[in-house]
Write a structure and sequence with these properties.
This protein is α/β, with parallel strands linked by helices. It has two domains: 1-25 and 37-97 and 174-265, 3-Layer(aba) Sandwich (Rossmann fold); 110-171. The protein is built from nine helices and ten strands. The protein has helices at 63-70, 91-94, 113-123, 128-141, 157-169, 187-202, 213-219, 237-242, 244-250; strands at 15-28, 33-47, 52-57, 78-83, 86-87, 98-101, 175-179, 206-210, 222-227, 230-236. The strands form two sheets. It has a six-stranded mixed sheet with strand order 6-7-8-3-9-10, sandwiched between helices. A four-stranded antiparallel sheet has the order 2-1-4-5. A hairpin with a 2-residue loop joins strand 4 and strand 5 (86-87). The chain starts with 14 loop residues before the first strand and ends in a 15-residue tail after the last helix.
Length: 265
Amino acid sequence: MRASALLVGKGMNAIEVDSLTKVISKHNPFTRTTDKRMFIDNVSFTAEKGEFIGILGTNGSGKTILLKLVCGLMSATSGTIMINGFDIEDRRNALKGVGCAIDTPGYYTNYTPTDMLLYNGRLRGIPSSTLKAEIHNVLEHLDLEEWKDVPLSKFSKGLMKKYAIASALLSDPDILILDEPSSGMDQKGRMIIQEILFDMKKENRTVIMSTHFQEVSQHCDKAVVLDHGRCVASGVIDKVMEHPNVVRMRSGQDIYLESKEVSDE
């Protein structure tokens, strides 16, 4: 990846999430009532420049929704998200230098990866003089060169995941937000993701990703563990893994829904 031009101010966290809450309302036309569900409940964490943060939890714990909130794909009910000193509500500035791969990215049915990356690159303001070379680089990096002219509608889950990550990397981000990046990948694909993460670490870039307990210690400095939308443990990896809530969660037991930060000491 090329040298980044975006710098985080001295003493400034790359990402600050404070008291974040997300309530989603759903109208029931039969009972004529509105049901409200708390998907994210008072979650806070910070990521310093160069830190890797793992978002952990069982299925339905709120990991993907939290990531969508952080990268501006959803709006919070309350709380604040600051990215490089900018409030997420100021998306133009806050998301400058941020790449994200959450869920299956939108695409036009007959478009190829090359078509969509050209479209996305122009939207992001990448100079036309370098855009094609940048597209070639990310497609080659994700081992998608032979698929560059194949319609995305023909892609498997693993190939779509590769395309999503290629799109996230196109703008050469300082902050990368990934939702289970190795999910659906074959062994070669997982190795490619590992190489990308190692490169990001060497270049002192920031990564926030939802992942699995068995993978988090390989890359992440800290973890945030969710259960039913609440943070039940957070802090440095080794301490988090020893937290009673996490031990219970990993063994399939019920846990105490108490949000506690683990001491770094």
